Amino acid sequence: MYLINLKDTKIRSGIPDPVISKLDQWLSNRKYNHRRYILPEYFSDDTYEVDYDTARKAMYWAVKVGALETNYEIHCPRCGERVEVVNRQLDIPDSVDCECGYDFNPWHNQEHIIISFNIRNK
Ligand SMILES: [Zn+2]
């Protein structure tokens, strides 16, 4: 165990221990420059036994136990660029200016907000 303390599994809901162990191992093995903006499908694509839904649930659980933090990546609805990243939903601004010249309200463009995860530095 490296990132995740298995005693924390007491507070989890419905994620099998082998999935937690695999997630821990998978996160621990990520290169330094691949430790941010992690999407659940990266884990499920790399891990035969884990489907996307399970990967997503396991990552949200890892946020609860402090191994990961959440990113809300705000992408421009016009050009697709990532304009801003915040770690808490309540920090999503109601106005963003993209370099392409488009100003928009992320709350009205939630399909362009991508949730990803960073490994927390211990
Ligand atoms: Zn743009």
Could you explain the architecture of this structure?
The protein is α+β, with helices and mostly antiparallel strands. It has two domains: 55 residues; 50 residues, no CATH class. Helices cover 26% and strands 20% of the residues. The chain has three helices and five strands; from the N terminus they run αααβββββ. It has a three-stranded antiparallel sheet with strand order 2-1-5. Strands 3-4 form a two-stranded antiparallel sheet. Helix 2 crosses helix 3. The mean pLDDT is 91.
Q: Helix and strand layout, with pairings?
A:
Blueprint: H1 17-28, H2 40-46, H3 52-64, E1 68-75, E2 82-86, E3 96-97, E4 103-104, E5 113-119
Antiparallel strand pairs: 1-2, 1-5, 3-4
Helix pairs in contact: 2-3
The structure holds zinc ion (ZN).
Zinc ion is lined by residues 76, 78-79, 81, 98, 100, 102.
The chain-level structural class is: alpha+beta
Whole-number tally of structural domains = 2
Q: The biggest beta sheet, please?
A: 3 strands, antiparallel
H and E order: HHHEEEEE
Q: What compounds sit in this structure?
A: zinc ion
Globular, elongated, flat, extended or rod-shaped: what is the shape?
elongated
Provide mean pLDDT, rounded.
91
Low-confidence stretches: none
Number of helices: 3
Total number of strands: 5
C-alpha-based Rg, rounded: 16 Å
Provide the helix percentage. Answer: 25-40%
Residue fraction in strands: 15-25%
The span between the termini is 13 Å
What's the arrangement of strands in the largest beta sheet?
Answer: 2-1-5
